[in-house]
Amino acid sequence: MKQTLWTKNFTLVTLASALGAIGGIAGGFALSFLVFDETGSTLASALILAIELIPYLLLPVMIAPLMDRLPRKTVLVAGDVCNGVIYACMGLYLLKFEFSYSGYLAVSLLLACLGSVDELAFQSIYPSLIPEGMEQKGYAVSTMLYPVLKVIMMPLAAILLDTLGVAMLLLTQGALSLLAALVESRIRVTQTGVAEKSRYSLGAWWRDIKEAAAYLRHERGLRSIYEYMAVTNGVAQGYAPILIAFFRTAPGMTATMYSLFSVAEFLGRSIGSALQYRVEIPKKKRFPFTFLVYQVYEVMDMCLLWLPYPLMLVNRGICGFLGSNSAIVRNAAVQRYIPEHLRARINAFDNMLLTLGGAIFALAIGALGEVLDYRLCVTLCGAIAMLACWVLIWGRRKAIRPVYAPDEEA
Asked: What is the pTM assigned to this prediction?
């Protein structure tokens, strides 16, 4: 019988992801406008984002050892149920009462805590739901799903916001989260490492943390991949406000022209994901392929703001294409490489490093934008990421190759 990606488990997790994404995009769009409409302050909106960042930095590492001992499906289902109930309660509240900014701050913190745990549970269970040998196709689907739904849902959410209002959109999001939980409950997966019945203690938690730390200490290749991703993702997040400032101040540039960057990147990402779904990259070629992609990507960043606008759009389309390709190959390789009983803890470390990198580079590049030309800032960002690629990826290639091709010699 021919092997297929679309088993019952994979179909269910993809459907649940789609339901959650549809609700999250519509609800997030509505809430972003609600906060600004009610407060009239961009600082108030920024404070919400800052508060939501805290759990993603701290909570995954704290909860990951316990998650490696619990059935991840249960955590995933419970998280969506809690999300559904909270969003539904928010919708009902707004139907009866006035908006409360302090109350929304508290709820945002709670939702961010749930979101960080839910994301970790999904990252840890998803590889187990992909048939062996189909990892590249599986991650191609997950990489393509959110951008496609975002392009569909953003204009629809704007229409629904005007016709139904924020409260009804939040009620809809709550219903979709509960429906996603129902779909996830039908997944059948066996997880190793959950049979231990002894009482969990602080000492056991610390032993679990040390076990994961010892694993990472000996996995230089895995660490190098994580460190490079923290740099390149942090740089990309850091220069995002620089791009906005450039399009606001440069002659002939507008906010609308900047918004088309997302369309170009979406098209590139969609084509890249579709290609990865159809074309299997041999294991021995995955490392040189991703290294080449990283090089081209950083060069594209370095020259972005020096190009005529039409070529800027082409640049972003190519980056979207390359970004989806490298992400799919990397995620498929890394998640299969990590032992299942350590997956939540290792993913938590990765998430923490990405969040920390984003925060550090955002502050550093924001300060740099106060004293340097915006184009020079972005070029310098690309150069920093390029240097990190040569040091962390090429310089440690012997340790990294086994991650991408575990059956090949390093």
From this structure: 0.76
Q: Could you give phi then psi for residue 220, rounded to 5 degrees? A: -65, -35
The radius of gyration computed from the CA coordinates of the chain, to the nearest angstrom, equals: 22
Whether the CB-CB separation of 27 and 167 falls below 8 Å is answered with no
Domain range 210-404, CATH class: mainly alpha
DSSP letter, residue 390 = I
Token output for 337: 């490489």
Alpha carbons 342 and 376: distance in angstroms, whole number: 42
Pick the CATH number of 8-186 from 3.10.620.30, 1.10.10.10, 1.20.1250.20, 3.10.120.10: 1.20.1250.20
Q: Side chain identity at 177, as an amino acid letter?
A: S
Residues in the chain: 410
Band (pLDDT 50/70/90 cuts) for residue 409 is very low
Please choose, from the candidates 225, 224, 233, the residue with its C-alpha nearest in 3D space to the C-alpha of residue 360.
233
> Cα-flanking dihedrals φ and ψ of residue 171, to 5°?
-65, -40
Q: Where in the chain is the domain with CATH 1.20.1250.20?
A: 8-186, 210-404
Question: What local confidence, expressed as pLDDT, does residue 42 receive?
Answer: 55
Q: How confident is the model at residue 410 (pLDDT cuts 50, 70, 90)?
A: very low
Q: Token match 């009983």: residue?
A: 341
pLDDT tops 90 at residue 269: no
Nearest to 261 by CA among 307, 209, 215: 307
